[in-house]
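Query structure, 511 tokens:
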């Protein structure tokens, strides 16, 4: 029997927030950095999807690195994500945050269950981007505090690690305040129009984009500029050195979530010149991350996986002709307000009924206490919601499983989005390219493919390079990494090992 290969000493979990896979092929000829290396030397799954609806940041991060859908992680929406007043920030702007809603285990827990000396560092601009890739693990988890520093919450400790204090003391935003984001390449390299009136709510739509010189404003909006990703990579690399991550013999985890693509995508849209330039800058930032890690550690003992938490839809203005500023937008408010008024007339407070990101929840006990028949409320609501222009379907949660079993993709994605103990009764899916009424920026969150389709790439020892066109799911990423490390999930998961991508010497036996 052949000797088992030495397991990796460093697993690098990369999440690029709002990275659609079509960006990779569209701009491959302009990549010189990490995306180029991942695409050329790694394994690229071109048909990878989140198999859940409510394609938001928190559920996406939780699912990618746990191998379980939001129905099982309990991280359903950003609003039902990491916010936690019990775990205030050590300092900085923003609310408290922790993974207390996250149920079960993540990849790092599986690694740790074999080797208690394994350690992890997770960094992001966003709290949810830093927290959820490590599940509930109390490791070094850091995010941008929107005041020129990186912070963490009391969940992880009462003081910031010394090396992070040193990093913050260098005042890393200072050199950017008052400077401008210019195009990385000559303007002829960008076919997109720059001046598009509906982008960025009509303000500052043309390059260059200047970061406010004022310290308070500038350190806040810094998170919307590509440099945010650069300093996140700087922090990751400094942490690897300070903590001796990846030196072996244990397998350590470095989780890096780069958020600026999401900020730029929301503000300017997926078809903007700004987004194009941002993705080129992500490629360069990732190149620096990979090159630096290879210089610091044995490159044959590092494995990388890259995924995204969700895609994004174009601005409705691109799809719907005319000049009506509300075109392509769905207004559920009259229906919800009318239903709440009807409940109030029976003494049931309005918050017994909630519509959040397409999930309609109803507190049946409170209705029952007032003698209101919840089933007839649900039936009436469903009919009223279906009548709203732009609504494609309204599913009863109680029928999702049966419809999913018949091969209905939308039903399956909603089924995978909603934990069984949530009081969800209906799910609302808009027609493709329709937004919610109040949304004036580009966005995501639907079960449509443009929000669910993500790039998945692996690079490193144990990985067979190539393009893989088969349909795979985001829940498959964590178990595939686990197989390379040589560990197994410590609980039932939804994903499966992507065996096609594994070298024979790391293939676990079939069972
Ligand atoms: Zn996101």
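Result returned for the query:
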């Amino acid at each position: 029997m052949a000797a088992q290969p030495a397991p990796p000493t460093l697993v690098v979990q990369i999440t690029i927030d709002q990275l659609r896979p079509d960006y990779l092929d569209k701009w491959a000829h302009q990549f010189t950095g990490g995306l180029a290396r991942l695409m050329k030397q790694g394994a690229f799954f071109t048909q990878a999807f989140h198999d859940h609806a409510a394609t938001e940041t928190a559920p996406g991060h939780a699912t990618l690195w746990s191998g379980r859908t939001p129905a099982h992680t309990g991280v359903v929406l950003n609003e039902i994500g990491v916010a936690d007043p019990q775990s205030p920030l050590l300092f900085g702007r923003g609310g408290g945050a922790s993974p207390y809603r996250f149920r079960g285990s993540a990849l790092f827990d599986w690694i740790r269950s074999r080797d208690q000396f394994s350690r992890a560092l997770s960094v992001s601009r966003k709290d949810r981007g830093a927290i959820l890739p490590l599940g509930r693990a109390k490791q070094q988890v850091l995010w941008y505090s929107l005041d020129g520093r990186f912070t963490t919450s009391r969940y992880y400790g009462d003081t910031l690690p010394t090396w992070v204090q040193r990093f913050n003391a260098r005042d890393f935003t200072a050199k950017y305040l008052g400077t401008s984001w210019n195009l990385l390449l000559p303007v002829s390299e960008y076919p997109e129009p720059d001046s598009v009136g509906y982008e960025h709510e009509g303000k500052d739509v043309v390059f260059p984009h200047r970061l406010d010189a004022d310290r308070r404003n500038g350190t806040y909006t810094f998170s919307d500029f590509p440099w945010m990703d650069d300093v996140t990579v700087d922090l990751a690399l400094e942490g690897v050195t300070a903590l001796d991550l990846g030196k072996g013999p244990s397998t350590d985890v470095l989780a890096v979530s780069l958020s600026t693509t999401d900020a730029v995508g929301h503000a300017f849209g997926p078809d903007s010149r700004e987004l194009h330039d941002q993705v080129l800058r992500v490629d360069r930032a990732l190149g620096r991350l990979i090159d630096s890690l290879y210089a610091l550690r044995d490159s044959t003992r590092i494995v990388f996986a890259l995924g995204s938490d969700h895609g994004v839809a174009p601005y409705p203005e691109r799809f719907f002709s005319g000049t009506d500023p509300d075109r392509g937008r769905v207004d559920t408010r009259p229906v919800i307000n009318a239903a709440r008024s009807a409940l109030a007339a029976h003494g049931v407070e309005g918050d017994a009924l909630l519509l959040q990101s397409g999930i309609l929840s109803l507190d049946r006990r409170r209705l029952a206490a007032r003698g209101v028949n919840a089933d007839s409320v649900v039936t009436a609501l469903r009919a009223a919601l279906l009548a709203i222009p732009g609504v494609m379907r309204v599913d009863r949660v109680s029928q999702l499983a049966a419809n999913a079993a018949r091969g209905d993709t939308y039903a399956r994605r909603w089924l995978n989005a909603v934990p069984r103990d949530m009081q969800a009764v209906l799910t609302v899916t808009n027609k493709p390219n329709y937004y919610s009424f109040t949304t004036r920026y580009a966005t995501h969150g639907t079960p449509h493919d443009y929000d669910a389709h993500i790039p998945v790439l692996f690079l490193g020892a144990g990985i067979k390079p190539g393009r893989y066109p088969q349909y795979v799911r985001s829940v498959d990423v964590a178990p595939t990494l686990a197989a390379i490390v040589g560990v197994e999930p410590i609980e039932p998961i939804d994903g499966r090992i992507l065996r096609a991508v594994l070298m024979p010497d790391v293939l676990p036996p079939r069972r």
